[in-house]
Amino acid sequence: MSSAISPAPCIHRIMIMHKAQQRRRPPFFDPQKKSPNGKAFIDSHLSTTWRKALGSLPLPSTPMANSEDSRRQPVHLLLVPLPAQGHLIPLLDLACHLSNRFAAAGAALSLTVLVTPANLPLLDSFFSAVPSARPLALPLPAHPSLPAGVEHVRDLPAQISTATLVRALSLLSPDVLRWARSHPHPPSAILSDFFLGWTNRLAADLAVPRLVFYSSGAFAVSIVDHVWQRMPRREDGDGPAALTVLCDLPSSPVFPFDHLPGVWRRFRAGDPDWEVMREGFLANATGSWGAAINTFDALEGPFLAHLKRAYPRVWAVGPISPAGPAVGRGGRSSIPVEEVAAWLDACPPRSVVYACFGSQYTPTEKQGRALAAALEWSGARFVWAAGGDGAVVPEGFEGRVAGRGLVVRGWAPQVQILNHGAVGAFVTHCGWNSVLEAAAAGVTLLAWPMGADQFVNARLLVEELGVAVRVGEGVEGTPEPDDLARVMVEAVAEGAWPEMRVRATELGRAAAEAVAEGGSSYRALEQMAKELSEAAYVEMK
């Protein structure tokens, strides 16, 4: 489209196209229609046409703060989170920051969160902090493999995959469509988790943009997109250490096959649940209007540049900070945050090892014993976030380490712990939220990845950024306790690892600069809000 064409005719043209598509949409998007090969028919024509039209449109130059239509009718964003703490919390935080950015510009953002009843209490603090947000609580449709009442990833039985829950969530589409089409101000865009690529079809049915939110980093996103599109195979006779070259990515990284993202390695062709997952991941890269990623330029610049060649829009908006009080965000803790802070206050600077394997992963007995023994034998001060009921903590352990160690059961105040000057090292599973929180705090890491995207994150930390030391790999790579204890002692020794500590401190400074006014992530969030407002303006015109 020529840049010489004035905005008004372009807007008129896009709405004529939109109305014509609306007239033919009911038969065209019949959810029961089948393609010749028997798979569910998922047509991307409307979403692709809409995306291309918006992407090439010379949008109005009127800022959202000065748009009469924007003031009269706020942008309405439908949030569709994956019910898992590591996905849900950063998405809600991003929505809160977006709402604040709209308000600062003199505009309004209305938020609706799709949620099932069992997960509604998890959103209480969000709704308290964001008055413009409302829940859309819909019962989770029945699934033959999903036990009744299971609506959160952490509650899935060991033999049930996340793909099963994702497919059950996808069955909410007809109810969401009915709600949206009867709403006096239906959603003008959808922002959904990257596990929920089925929302691309939902957005197409509503003729609105779909923005994908990545709670993982740009390196991991690049690899996830690559493996779903290329489907590399482990050849017959290859063992778990067989190497896979990701030739399309910057520097062509090489990984053992078993270190590629777990959500892809568990794929089972022909399984209805996994086919929904596969189609969704493919739709993320090929059909989304834009991608918001919880990372920042100084952390993953080359991989962000790679993704910007694949997605129409990429906003690196991290590290996404807690939009409200961080205390109690993940549930109850066995030790109040004030007591943890007081205990750390009594410790010398950089003398404490913090150990945590995240909110979703439960260490095996072997891993728990190895970590406990290393903490005990090291003689170092420590805080161990043992999660859940702390079942991995050996009997009598707390008595033997009394005075120099804390064991926190339940939810640990991780952000506050990592930002305390007494903490010198972090034993981590390398989940992305933990990586970002450690990066923002400028803390060195002892990397022990377990699964998911964690091997990818560990490589970024150890080999690309030089702010971590690898101490273990999954269950098979559980370190010997005396080896782990030795590394712990080194990590908190005065004057140890000077170059690594400098790099970690510089990374923390870069993280702070990214989200400060004028920083790369600050500007990206502002651009995201502006483009959302403009897209809604185009639709209203």
As a percent range, the share of strand residues is: 5-15%
Question: Helical percent range?
Answer: 40-55%
Number of helices: 21
Largest sheet: 7 strands, parallel
Identify the quaternary structure here.
Answer: single chain
Radius of gyration: 24 Å
Spatial strand order of the main sheet: 3-2-1-4-5-8-9
Low-confidence stretches: 1-71
Distance between the termini: 19 Å
The secondary-structure class comes to alpha/beta
Q: Strand tally, please?
A: 15
Overall mean confidence score, pLDDT: 84
**What sort of overall outline do the alpha carbons produce when their principal axes are compared?**
globular
Family: Belongs to the UDP-glycosyltransferase family.
Protein name: Flavonol 3-O-glucosyltransferase UGT89B1-like
GO molecular function: UDP-glucosyltransferase activity
Keywords: Transferase
Overview of this protein structure:
- The protein is built from 21 helices and 15 strands.
- It is α/β, with parallel strands linked by helices.
- The strands form 3 sheets. A 7-stranded parallel β-sheet has the order 3-2-1-4-5-8-9, sandwiched between helices. Strands 12-11-10-13-14-15 form a 6-stranded parallel β-sheet, sandwiched between helices. Strands 6-7 form a two-stranded antiparallel sheet.
- Helix 9 crosses helix 11 and helix 14 (365-378) crosses helix 19 (481-492).
